[in-house]
Amino acid sequence: MDFTELIDLASERLGGAVLVANDDFFAPKENLLKASAPIFIEGKYTDRGKWMDGWESRRRRTPGFDWCIIRLGLPGIVRGIVVDTSYFRGNYPEHCALDGAVFSGVPTEEELTSEAVQWVPLLPQLPLAGDSQNPFPLQYEERVTHLRFKIFPDGGVARLRVYGEVLPDWDQLKRAGGFIDLAAAENGALVLSCSDMFFGHRHNLIMPGRAANMSDGWETKRRRGPGHDWAIIKLGKPGQIRRVEVDTSHFKGNFPESCSLEACNAEGRTAEALTDLSTPWTTVLPRTKLQAHTRHFFDQELIDTGVASHLRFSIFPDGGVSRLRVYGTLVE
Prior knowledge:
The protein is built from three helices and 22 strands. It is mainly beta. It has two domains: 3-166, Jelly Rolls (Sandwich), CATH 2.60.120.260; 170-330, Jelly Rolls (Sandwich), CATH 2.60.120. The strands form five sheets. Strands 1, 2, 6, 7, 8, 9, 10 and 12 form an eight-stranded antiparallel beta sheet that branches. Strands 13, 14, 16, 17, 18, 19, 20 and 22 form an eight-stranded antiparallel beta sheet that branches. Strands 3-4 form a two-stranded antiparallel ribbon. A hairpin with a 2-residue loop joins strand 3 (45-46) and strand 4. The longest helix is centred in the middle third of the chain and has 7 residues, at 170-176.
C-alpha cells in the first residue's frame, strides 16, 4: 500500500501539535499541521514580511539548522512523510531530516528539548525541492510518540504529513474494561479500500468524535448503474462484535437507503485479496433501512459470527455516512 493511504498520525484532528520550534519569525509553527491545503495571497504582508501559509524561520547567519518538535496525535510506526513546500520558491530549506522519540505522559518543553532525550534518526538529511510535494518513505519499525523535524539551514515549509500505522496502548485499553471500538482509527483500525469516495474520504468513517459537517464523513458519488457502494475496514485487533453504531448525521438528502455489515477473520490478507469474490464474508448486520441525520444503534439485531479481523460495510445504493463504530471484546 502507498504510505499516503495510511492515517496521518500528526493530524490536528487526532491531537497532533507542533509543541516547540527554535524559530518561527516569519510564519508560525502551528501552520505546519493545518488540515487545509496551503494557500498564497498575493500582496499580503505582516509587520515581519510576506505572509506565508506555513512554518518559516528567519535567515540564519550562524552555523546550524532550524527545528521543531511535534507530538503525534496517535503514536505508531511512521511509514512515510510528505514535506510540502508549496509557494516556498526562493525561501525553502535546502535539506530536511527527521528524528523520533518515545515519551510517556505529557512531557514539558524542558523535557522535550533536553539534551538527555534519545532521538532516533528516522530520515537522514535529504534534499528538498521548492514549491513541491516531497515524499519520503521510512524504514524504522518501532513505535514513536514525538518527532523532531529539522530543516537545513533555514526557510519555510508549508505542511508536514506523517503517515503510518497506529499502535495504541492495548494494556491500558484492557485495564479500562468494557467494550472497545475495534473500528476506531485511534485503536489501530484502517479503512483499506472502498468502492468510491468522491465527496468524502473513506478514513473519515473511523475518525474520533462526531462529524463536524457533511464534508467530515465518507460520501460517494450518485450511482447511475446497478450495484452498491462499500468500504473494507481492518480492525485494530481481532475481536467479537457486540454493538454497532451507524451515524448519518448531516446527511439529510443524500443518506443511504440502507446498509449492511459483514465480517471475516483474515489477518494478513491484502486489500486486493479482500475484494476478491472468493473471500468468505459472513453477515453481522443484515441489510437494514437507515434514516437521515440519525445515529443508529444495533445490538440485538447483530448475528454472532465469532472472531472478526476485517469488516465489509455496504451502503445501498450510495450516499454518505458520518461515522461507523464497532464495539466488541478483544480476542487474544
